[in-house]
UniProtKB/TrEMBL annotation:
<dbReference type="Pfam" id="PF07702">
    <property type="entry name" value="UTRA"/>
</dbReference>
<dbReference type="InterPro" id="IPR050679">
    <property type="entry name" value="Bact_HTH_transcr_reg"/>
</dbReference>
<dbReference type="GO" id="GO:0045892">
    <property type="term" value="P:negative regulation of DNA-templated transcription"/>
</dbReference>
<dbReference type="Pfam" id="PF00392">
    <property type="entry name" value="GntR"/>
</dbReference>
<dbReference type="InterPro" id="IPR011663">
    <property type="entry name" value="UTRA"/>
</dbReference>
<dbReference type="InterPro" id="IPR000524">
    <property type="entry name" value="Tscrpt_reg_HTH_GntR"/>
</dbReference>
<dbReference type="GO" id="GO:0003700">
    <property type="term" value="F:DNA-binding transcription factor activity"/>
</dbReference>
<keyword id="KW-0805">Transcription regulation</keyword>
<keyword id="KW-0804">Transcription</keyword>
<dbReference type="InterPro" id="IPR036390">
    <property type="entry name" value="WH_DNA-bd_sf"/>
</dbReference>
<protein>
    <submittedName>
        <fullName>GntR family transcriptional regulator</fullName>
    </submittedName>
</protein>
<dbReference type="InterPro" id="IPR028978">
    <property type="entry name" value="Chorismate_lyase_/UTRA_dom_sf"/>
</dbReference>
<feature type="domain" description="HTH gntR-type">
    <location>
        <begin position="3"/>
        <end position="71"/>
    </location>
</feature>
<keyword id="KW-0238">DNA-binding</keyword>
<dbReference type="GO" id="GO:0003677">
    <property type="term" value="F:DNA binding"/>
</dbReference>
<dbReference type="InterPro" id="IPR036388">
    <property type="entry name" value="WH-like_DNA-bd_sf"/>
</dbReference>
Length: 234
């Protein structure tokens, strides 16, 4: 069956989004520019963009344009209460990777996740910035993945995109939240005084059959960046 023009435009744009031709936060060409590119009227372009918006891959901002949404490969997966801020401020966010290394799992992390200390893991340390200010520090421990696959991504925005790239399924996450004073090292990285109040989030991410894929501990400055929980009647 031959695909329609709007399906062709949709599929090609989606492919460019998933292969990072268009990075998170990037602005798409205008409807007129896309119509010219695909030798079509604006109607099929608009229909393709409607589908991408409904599925969570793009954000339309009146008077500003159309932008690539964050965590676009998993529009059905809610991974925390910062989603609204991500969507509203995506163009101001970026990440810096501090280190990627293989190491045996430390005792404190092993206790937190319930697996033996010394288990091989990939340690990834990152800082996410908002308008050039440190927003939060993340320390990931990843299981069953080669560190080289992560190193080559450089200052990547989302580990979820890397998991998707290598067809690693995510089926469940668990978050534990706690208000804590920032330790000295964390305070220095976040550029705040020691013992500044921060939100500590411990997150476990599982793949199929209950296998632990990742444990991440992150310290968040919540003065401007709020953690929201929404309940919706089914």
């Amino acid at each position: 069956m031959t695909e329609s023009l709007h399906e062709k435009i949709y599929n090609e744009l989606l492919h460019k989004i998933k292969t990072h031709f268009y990075e998170e936060g990037a602005q798409l060409p205008t409807e007129a520019e896309l119509a010219l590119q695909y030798n079509s009227s604006k109607a099929p372009v608009r229909q393709a963009l409607d589908y991408l918006q409904q599925e969570g891959f793009i954000l339309r901002r009146p008077g500003k344009g159309t932008f690539i949404a964050g965590r676009r490969e998993w529009p059905h997966l809610n991974l925390g209460g910062f989603e609204q801020d991500f969507e509203e401020n995506n163009q101001y966010l970026y990440c810096k990777t501090l280190s990627v290394q293989d190491l045996p799992l430390p005792k404190d992390i092993a206790k937190a996740v319930g697996i033996p200390a010394g288990t091989p893991a990939v340690s990834v340390q990152r800082i996410r910035y908002f308008k050039d200010k440190p927003l939060y520090y993340l320390h990931h421990f990843i299981f069953g993945m080669e560190s080289a696959l992560i190193k080559k991504e450089g200052n990547f925005s989302s580990l979820l995109a890397i998991y998707d790239q290598y067809h690693i399924p995510i089926v469940r996450t668990e978050d534990e939240l706690q208000a804590v004073p920032a330790p000295q090292k964390i305070a220095e990285l976040l550029r705040v005084p020691p013992h500044t109040a921060v939100m500590l989030i411990n997150r476990k991410t599982y793949r199929e059959k209950g296998r632990l894929l990742e444990f991440v501990r992150f310290y968040v400055l919540t003065e401007e960046w709020k953690y929201r929980v929404q309940y919706q009647e089914k």
